[in-house]
Amino acid sequence: MDHSSNSGVAQFITVLNFQSVTLVLPAIQHSLGFSAENLQWVVSANALAFGGGLLVAGRLADIFGHRRIFVCGLLLSTISASGCGLATSQFMLVFARILQGMATALMIPAALALIIDLSPQGTLRYRALGAWGFLVRLGRGRNVAR
């Protein structure tokens, strides 16, 4: 598997991670005792951390290296996913979801930059970017053929 496909798989996983939590919200609410109002933080904490960290993470990738920041994002993603699975309180779960959003913010701009860095200009780069975009769409779980 080359670096562009690794970046694509990471993109797919992060989008799937963000979308799939909505399927288990009722179970999360029941097991951790979330109120209906506070349950939204399970989704929103991730989105806010991602959106808030995206520009900073892109700049960090430019300064410290795309591959290094991408790997840091993968490690943080693994740690935060484990934290979500092991959460025993509302606070632990929301905190782990914030870490997941930060991990995604680190990975996405670095992954895109890696694809551009490692793909020669022209048709191969366009195919790699197209595959990356396809995996985003696939991770959302919608009809890809639309």
TrEMBL record:
* Parts forming coiled coils: none
The UniProt record lists the Major facilitator superfamily (MFS) profile domain at 3-146
What keywords appear on the UniProt entry?
Answer: Membrane, Transmembrane, Transmembrane helix, Transport
Output the Gene Ontology cellular-component terms: plasma membrane
Q: Where are the transmembrane segments?
A: 12-32, 38-57, 69-92, 98-118
**What kind of membrane protein is this, topologically?**
Multi-pass membrane protein
Question: Which compartment or compartments is the protein found in?
Answer: Cell membrane
Query: Could you confirm whether the keyword Zinc appears in this record?
Result: no
SUPFAM superfamilies according to UniProt: MFS general substrate transporter
Q: Which PROSITE patterns match?
A: MFS
Q: Which GO terms describe its molecular function?
A: transmembrane transporter activity
Which PANTHER family has this protein been placed in? Answer: MAJOR FACILITATOR SUPERFAMILY MULTIDRUG TRANSPORTER MFSC (PTHR42718)
What's the protein name? MFS transporter
**Species:** Ktedonosporobacter rubrisoli
